[in-house]
Structures are given as C-alpha cells and as structure tokens.
Write a structure and sequence with these properties.
Belongs to the methyltransferase superfamily. LaeA methyltransferase family. The protein is α/β, with parallel strands linked by helices and 367 residues long. The protein is built from 10 helices and 10 strands.
C-alpha cells in the first residue's frame, strides 16, 4: 500500500477548507506533491556542523533548550535514545516520538493548535448527540479524550495508547487503557459509535488492517475519523531551498518511515481514504487544511493558529527527529547543529512556512 500511486481525489472541499483556515495563503500554495515527488534525499549530519562553523550569526532559542490489560511494570521500562525516553516494547508497538515530560508538553500545545485549526471543534464527523461509546486511538496525553468526554458527558470515552502517560484526574465518563492498536482489537463487534485517530503517522504499517478493526467494532452508522499531516513543510511563495533545514525536516520522516516500514507519506498517498474504502466504509468525506507555522499570517485568527503551531515545533524539535537521526547514525552535535538552523529558519521572516493536514471520516453502512 505504501508504494502505490495516489488515486484521484475531488479536492473542491479541500480548497474551500484551505480558504477558511488560511485566507491569505489559500491561492498561493501549489497542489500537494504526489508520492513519487516526495524527496527523501537527506543531507548528512556533518553538513550542519560545517554550516554552523561558517555562519557568524548567533541565534538564541526563545523556547530553551500484549492486549488490553492492567498496567504492567515492564511498560514503564522506556528506552533511552539521545537522552530522551521512548516507548520500550521494541518489536511490538512502535512509536517514533518520545514520551517524556517535554514531549507531553508539546503534544498538549499541538492539541490546542489542532482545536483552533478545526474552528474550535474536536471532530468533523456528523455525530449524533446521543452517542454512547467513543474510542480514541493513540490518545497520547489524553487531552483530546478529556475534552471530548467533557463535551459529551453522556458518552463512555476510552483512550488507548502504548505509553501510560495520561493523567489520573479525568472526567468520570473517561478511562484510559494500555493497548497496541496494531493488534486485533478486543472490543465487542458493533459496540462503538465513534472512533477517533490523530497523527498516527509513522506508527502504522498496515492502515487497511487498522481501519478494518475499527469497522468491526463500530456500530452500523458509526463513524471513523482520521487526522494526518503531510510529511514536511512547504513555503508560501518561493519553494523551499531543498538544502534548507525546513526542507530537510520532512526527509527525516520519509526516510525513517521507509526504513522501519511505517510510512510518513500517508497524506501524499491518500492512504486514509484508500484504507477506509478497502475496510468497507461509505459516505467518505475529507477536508484538507493548510496549517501555517510562525508569525507571518495577517489575519488574527490564522496568526493564532500559526503561533501555536510554531510553539509545537519549537517546544520539542529534538523529540521529533532524534529517533530517526539516531537511526541514521547522526551524532548529538550534528543533531544540535541541525536544530539550531531549523529554529532559525522557522522563526525567520524570510519564510512563510506551512504544512497540510487532512481529516477523513467515513461511516459503517447501516446494513
């Protein structure tokens, strides 16, 4: 599936969504690159050390440096890579992002950026007010599930993740479970009204298998909703220099995803829609949103989205790339020099960075 060519998709709703999200950027960005056009040629780590040595400008970082079961002590035996902790069940559930305190702060900032990006909505699927059971896959810090449980107090909400990093003070209608979504789900068939997933990119080898599990557990008429980003940054106006740190950012993930068999080109390949169709969902709809990053938008609401998005990346850029940089045998110094340039470019007035975000939702047939 990861190597297939993208199918044609009607992008009229996507264009309308882009206009709503980023008024001044809607007309400028070109269409998202096709899979074959995604370049994974990444510069070696030593390039960034050499660039730092040749650059006289200083830069100060403004942010600073097995099945559903009860908690097992082994789950807390996190791996440590480049000074950061990651989920420890190697060979089973695999997630590329860290799960330490700094990463959790970044996840919560990102949640707020997504909330603003959707017009202060937690979902786009047309849910009924009387929904009874909701499942949030890859819940992370659990912040989406907490907000959803507050908004729908009559629904039972379950958030699942491979790492036990969720808070204990939660709404009474919410519970968290440690579970690997890439295995067979243990929930009863036809028992769930709504399944929500967000940013599972790089964690799933077989998206069709994942969505088939959701299909099996959903009630007839229930919805699956998937949120996934593009693999890298683009720039409004002039294309990014492919040797820039911003352009190189996405290459870490494309190359890393290929190496570990978990694609980061979910957006570019339209994998969400394809997998939903293959799993049997109907009435599939999607919205593509242009998500600005930085201080460049003029519209106040758009600027707020862009500022929170920038804060997401500046809070923990090392957490994003460290796993793959380590896999590519980069040294700590090489990682730090790359991140120095990345922060500089992201905050520079010379760039008007954005990435794309696609929300896809589909319904399980009534019969």
């Amino acid at each position: 599936m990861a190597g297939s060519s993208p199918a044609p998709v009607d992008n009229a709703p996507a264009a309308a969504a882009a206009v709503a999200a980023v008024p001044e950027a809607a007309a400028a960005p070109a269409a998202a690159p096709a899979t074959s056009e995604v370049d994974d040629n990444i510069l070696p780590g030593r390039h960034w050390i050499a660039q730092a040595e040749n650059d006289a400008d200083s830069f100060v970082d403004s942010v600073g440096d097995e099945t559903t079961a009860s908690l097992r002590s082994s789950i807390r035996n996190y791996r440590e890579i480049n000074g950061r902790t990651y989920h420890g069940e190697v060979g089973q559930a695999e997630y590329w992002g860290p799960n330490d305190d700094r990463a959790q702060e970044g996840l919560d900032i990102h949640h707020h950026a997504c909330f603003l990006m959707l017009g202060q909505e937690l979902h786009l699927a047309p849910l009924q007010e009387g929904i009874q059971k909701v499942l949030d896959i890859g819940t992370g810090t659990g912040i989406w599930a907490i907000d959803f449980a507050d908004e729908f107090p009559g629904a039972e909400v379950i958030g699942t993740d491979v790492s036990p990093i969720q808070p204990s003070w939660i709404p009474p209608n919410l519970k968290f479970e440690i579970d690997d979504c890439t295995r067979e789900w243990t929930y009863a068939e036809n028992s769930i009204d709504y399944v929500h997933t967000r940013w599972l990119i790089g964690s799933i080898a077989d998206w069709t298998a994942l969505f088939k599990e959701a299909f099996k557990c959903l009630k007839p008429g229930g919805y699956l909703e998937s949120h996934e980003p593009s693999s890298g940054f683009e720039n409004q106006g002039e294309p990014l220099d492919q040797k820039s740190a911003l352009a190189q950012w996405g290459k870490f993930f494309v190359k890393g995803g290929l190496k570990f068999g978990r694609p980061f080109t979910v957006f570019e390949e339209h994998i969400q829609r394809k997998a939903m169709e293959a799993a049997g969902f109907v009435d599939i709809e999607e919205r593509e949103i242009i998500n600005p990053v930085g201080n460049w938008p003029a519209d106040p609401k758009t600027k707020e989205i862009a500022q929170f998005s920038e804060a997401t990346f500046l809070e923990d850029p090392k957490g994003y790339i460290a796993f793959f940089a380590h896999a590519l045998d980069w040294t700590t110094e090489e990682i730090e020099m790359y991140l120095l340039q990345f922060r500089r470019e992201l905050k520079s007035s010379n760039h008007r960075a954005f990435y794309r975000h696609r929300v896809v939702w589909g319904k399980k047939p009534l019969v």
